## 1
Amino acid sequence: MASRLPLMVFTDLDGTLIDHDTYAWTPAQPALSALADIGAAVILASSKTAAEVSVLRTDIGLDQWPAIVENGAGLLPAETTEVGKTGTYPELRSAIGDLPAELRAQFVGFGDMSAIQVSDITGLPEDGAKLAQQRAFSEPGQWHGTDAQKTRFIDHLKDHGIIAQQGGRFLTLSFGGNKAIQMRDIIETYAPKHTIALGDAPNDVQMLTTADYGVVVANPHRAPLPPLAGETEGRIIRTSAAGPIGWNAAIIELLDRLKL
């Protein structure tokens, strides 16, 4: 009988496992190697597309595990590079286009931009920006209106069955799903002994509080997350270092705490 999976780690990417500015993940290599040594699973959970995540997942050596893509609106199965023909992106873009013009004009999504414009606002090379535009389930973008207009915008979206999630960089729209929902399904499938989740943005909170242990990774480029449930008991911890350096330190600390 196969032994039970000792640990499953769910991790956000931008500003968490990968550096906010350089997109490097290699400072987290010591912890990733330690996880591999004990046979732990690492599940990437990002607003990135399947096309983006599949490349990164291969680079890190995690192809044997599924990945959560487009902010939880979709799932990239293990050992594949595509999500298949299950996407809802055309319907989503159509519904966004039906919103009142005054509000629609304040939201500039990736589908409204050229690859060069996406490159400019993300810092990705143009080839990477094109991968970011290969969307199947969701539409990230920048909000340029007032807070009051944003509230009205989100209310109109709800009437179309669309939800909005604020990430570290972008407001992302989809017909539903989030990282925590996908996370629960994956946990049910693999039944790990322990779970850890790491993130830095509001759209990571549900994932952080769902895991046995949550890690808020410092990100000097955005306001810190407010205190979370479980933080006073030590179930939620915060890193002092940002990005993959903080990620690495937190995983090493938790592996020691769990005696793994």
## 2
Amino acid sequence: MPRRQLFPITARHQRTCPASSADVISGMFPSDQVFIRVCHVKKGYEDRERHIREEFSKRGVPVNFFLDWDVADVTEEAKASFTASNRLRASEISLGLKHIGVWREFLKTDLPYCLVFEDDVFLAKNFVRKLNECLAEIGNPDRRAAVYLGNGCNYYVAGWKLRRGQQLYPASHARCADSYLITRPVAEARLAWIDKHKVSLPIDHQIEFIDEQLGIEMLWFERPIVEQGSQNGAFQSSVAGRRHLLRFKQIDWFLVKHWRRFFGHSSRRKQQAKSGEVLRLAPETGKIGGAKLSGEK
């Protein structure tokens, strides 16, 4: 059971409007402001379920799993109504539907914030306090903003660019979808876009594309208060097509992480360019197409 966290991180959360100073100091989870769900499956990955229950309990974070739309639940009819591309794997379709299902459930409540996790996350020891500080810094619950709490793909703002008292930094793109906070206007806007255009990309890439199209703020929380176990080597990925030797992955993640924390790193597009193919989506449809870079044969 690979539970050992190699590199400590930090985080915590709360609910409606900016968190009060008393809430921030007390470090209570803001259940009156934040709708929280963890994307998980009904059967299988019991190790991840145990991990989430233990990890969240230690941090004082409520555990609420979203269990709809497992791979077995995705019918051909659902796939046709949801996707605009045949390139997505069944696991990617399932995960995308889970995220979207969480947003729909969130909008049935009157809470201003939605906190979404995938089921392999590690939380910082001060997660709840930092989450309350995040809500206070957002300021307005009607703000069209998505806050990425984790260090997905080891994306960081360079250490020398950080400012005392500031934890939210505007970014040109998203981090991964393992841990993020959105407001009601963001959930409404994303769902309206998907209802019109469907989905053509894995959910993390898709929401980045949607937010770019709609002018939604993408903010990175620095320093991150969540780390994804399938990236840091604690778990095998549940959606990737191939398996990796976890020990090598742990070492690589450690070295890259500490280098990028100092120097900074961004732009998923750099990784796409290295493969020789850029994903191009028509702004009016969001449909995917591959285009070789100039100079590629």
## 3
Amino acid sequence: MTKTAFLPHRGVIAIEGPDRITFLQGLVSNDVTKAVPGRTVWSALLTPQGRYLAEFFILATADSLLLDTAREAIPDLIKRLGRFRLRSKVTVADRSADFAVHAAWNGSATIPDAITAPDPRLDTAGTRILARTRLPDALDATAYLAHRLALGLPDHADLEPEKTLLMEAGFDELHGIDWDKGCYMGQELTARTRYRGLVKRRLIPVNGSTDLPSPGTPITTGDRDAGALRGRLGLRGLAMLRLDCLDLPLQAGPIMVKPDMPYWLTLPEPAQA
């Protein structure tokens, strides 16, 4: 049975104008040309040094690109995108008041008068929906959080602006990077972390022995730092963990935690002795 949840923590930025595709193409990690009606692209904006700033789904209409993104990231994202407008014929505006962001999963979602497209990260991730108002019978965001954490899918709240690398957060396996699209801001470091095997930590699902503590709680193994907890709900969460600590006993405060690798996550091969 299909489940649908209203996501009030997500908002919408509209990029309009004849240069909207070429403008965004040179800035973000994925191929904007692949965003067409009925097909969304998951992507990120990075710093020039290749560090994460914001993630978003790019949904297309006949005359606009709509970025489904975290509301808290919108003011900074609009400001940063505005710096690159130069002579491009585009407008960038917060359209959160015009859309109610939803996600649906466990089946297909047909919503009249809404903009919909499959979540491109996993076949089981579901559908992104931009409706005009909250849909009748929509669940609250906690239901979607449980679904997302069960699959190990990251959200803006799980990532650290100006610190996280895309390769640490699963953007490669989850189709958030196009390796053939050409230059974009932060591309050099992103490519280097892939081809030189520089990733030393990953965002990984974890299960707690009891309900997990608040996001940001340090995770340790003995007296060593092993990472930090990010988003969580009950026993399930996501944690940014050092790869050399995954086989060791881990604790978030007093609570034992255990990595639970999703099928899609690929870890580097261990070094040969």
